Amino acid sequence: MARPQQNKWSLHGMTALVTGGTRGIGHAVVEELAGLGASVYTCTFTEAELQECLEKWKVNNAGTNVWKATTEHTAEDFAFIVSTNLESAYHLSQLAHPLLKASGAGNIVSLSSVAGVTSVNRITLWDHQRSHKSAG
């Protein structure tokens, strides 16, 4: 007979900030951290999306893509994807650094996509910027 799994560790008293926490990997991270007892803060593109998740969570990795053939991407597409998926993580880390350093227990965890290590049809700009984020 299987025993109920017990938490081997706890995040009670810890605080987490998860970008893109209403969808995909970010959503799963929010739920896991909250389930381990952390106070979790998150953000997303729309207030409606956030409100929908808050109703489910009862508690307090952003990325995007432009789906086109490689030859159809514009300079604006590239700038939008790199700004959202790469630069935002860098700038958030800069802003968080003094707070994390002062806490004495802070960490920054950056998640990436499998598209950073393998080609995925019709998302070449995503593949390219993810591979650079994963390598850093």
UniProtKB/TrEMBL annotation:
It comes from Punica granatum (Pomegranate). Keywords: NADP, Oxidoreductase. Belongs to the short-chain dehydrogenases/reductases (SDR) family. SDR65C subfamily. PANTHER family: NAD(P)-BINDING ROSSMANN-FOLD PROTEIN, TROPINONE REDUCTASE. It comes from the Eukaryota. This is Uncharacterized protein. One of its GO terms (molecular function) is oxidoreductase activity. The keyword Oxidoreductase applies.
